[in-house]
Prior knowledge:
Helix content of chain A is 41%, strand content 18%.
Amino acid sequence: MPPIKFSILKELGGRTAKLGRVGILETPHGVIETPAFVSVGTKATVKALTPEQIKDCGAQVVLANTYHLYLEPGDERVKKFGGLHKFMNWQGPLMTDSGGFQVFSLGAAYGKQISKIAKTPLLMLGEGKGVRSEEEIAGSLAKIGQDGVSFRSHHDGSLHYITPEKSIEIQHNLGADIIFAFDECTSPNEDYRYQEEALERTHRWAKRSLEFHKSKDNSKTQALFGIVQGGREKGLRKRSAEFMKSLDFEGFGIGGSFAKEDMETAVKWVNEILPKEKPRHLLGIGEPEDLFMGVENGVDLFDCVAPTRNGRGGTLYTSRGKINIRNAEFREDTGSVDGDCGCYTCKNFSRAYLCHLYRSHEMLGGTLGSIHNLYFIINLVKKMREAILDNSFTLFKIKFLSKYRN
Amino acid sequence: MPPIKFSILKELGGRTAKLGRVGILETPHGVIETPAFVSVGTKATVKALTPEQIKDCGAQVVLANTYHLYLEPGDERVKKFGGLHKFMNWQGPLMTDSGGFQVFSLGAAYGKQISKIAKTPLLMLGEGKGVRSEEEIAGSLAKIGQDGVSFRSHHDGSLHYITPEKSIEIQHNLGADIIFAFDECTSPNEDYRYQEEALERTHRWAKRSLEFHKSKDNSKTQALFGIVQGGREKGLRKRSAEFMKSLDFEGFGIGGSFAKEDMETAVKWVNEILPKEKPRHLLGIGEPEDLFMGVENGVDLFDCVAPTRNGRGGTLYTSRGKINIRNAEFREDTGSVDGDCGCYTCKNFSRAYLCHLYRSHEMLGGTLGSIHNLYFIINLVKKMREAILDNSFTLFKIKFLSKYRN
């Protein structure tokens, strides 16, 4: 029996010819109602939150980062503890990424500052994300070979070598319900030739990841997703989707450091090709506009550090757009962060109290802000799900975005 | 009707001739079973914890700091919000200190580093505490007059002037159930002459605090405690206890920057004089040995930042003494922080996971560590209470301390 089962309950379809759908994803640690936002728990903790608080935000599933956990505390240590579920005391579904993204972004950045050159026009994805500039790529400490990548730890500079097999072995040790094939996530600033080369590498690595995974008993309890890459190039994106489709993956990731304007077309190209009956995860995306785009284009799962990172920094989501809760205007504000929100923070505390906590550098501010943002984003995707079921998705989208962008 | 009611249920007494007792302190926001440890919520938040987590630690009462809240967010702003209970969403009993301690330690320290000279032999008390060295006293920016103290904010250097009346007014605006008279907390390094002068000032200020308080309606809902000072001098301590006893306070604080070896004698001198029927709060004390000393010498309430400050730093209490959870020896340790502990942290997480969180600078480490430490200390005082009721206090003390000091 395969480790996961995905069933589609309803499709957006109709006159809109949209790819969106509502599904149920069954995993060994419970059910995920899709589309769903996946909370990011980089280092085996959703920053600042206890497992109960994560659950109270409506979270169904948590994604941890292979690269970080491989370095600290070490995947073998986690295995000795009976896996990530036990280690971090999260009993629901878990995912781990392949580590590829961080090997290239964090590993490459060892020993020098990430240049800002290429950063501005790109979306910020993933934890500790830095998009490589050309300068960096030239001077990079991550060496890409046909077999894998050697890189230096961003902690202590120690040398490491990750192959597709090694990535899967680490993820087997961590023991998440859904794991990802090892891939190379390129910058959209790279030229076509590099994108194509990198894509071929990602495809070879996907095949090797899959073969290694299938040869192990863990494939009975852990599902492997392949990652579609190809940057902003239509031809490459389609080639990648066709290639991944041809392999026996149990679901797919859609990766890439996107320029915002390229994202929708890339997702559409890919999802028109990927087999309908398998789940799709758009990696590292979580802003409200992008979630609507993803859902209507057939994405089932999203993850992003934005809600918790923004939450710690005091940037809070509201139905009227984001606010910086530190601003002086909120010092006297007796209202909740968002009048329409039912989260723990909004039910119990005023904007003025949160403003005070952030201005006083109190940890509770980051906790309450993360709770609010995570609830807000998780609940937004949940409402999209309900809207598809109610045949009111487009109306909901227009109403939400016109208020949000107001 | 007075705002609080204190009833003694049982005394330690007997052959030991100890002053310890078990009581019930009724406040407008609920009952405190004494002896009890008071959680410190300096800036209207027990650092890193939600009100529910504070309660789950067994906390019955929280003490916030007048000096900090006066500066940020401002006591008048808190008043507009309906007081501290509403502002911070803590529905149980609340206390505020007088601000005197911080005016002298933090206010005086504005613009330069607190010297370490006098620190080592002294206990660390209170939030953000620094004991003044002679050097500092000489160069202090806090100016003590007969009427009050002018000082500069440690935030922004702005000038402020606090009189006894002002301290009480601020505490009326904050609205805690139990408030304290304005006092001067001297360093044990000061000479006798200065101690005597400061004590006379504290006495005059206590009287003025009381007169101002009694003239206001708030005295119907807020109880005022006078603070006994006098440093390490028997004569001064006794004089102070006699003076405070003569006034119509509803309870007493015992203040001072104690050298560890002076504390027991000072507490005994004072509590032999203070009226038995009123509650006594030993300010800023919270290490296990000192809690036993205080309880057997008739202290009913304690507060200290040590549990939460240690918790954030990774120093955790166990029945076999304190441990630094960051240490490499705990990386593989599947056991809970303390095998005898029933706190949320110990019930759900291993030492190895906590070690990982602290080493990875994850906020959840500070939260889980604070929960454990707060539970440990609150529960220790609760067990002392039960031991007095069971006639087993001395046995419990010997057993606990022999293991703890092991």
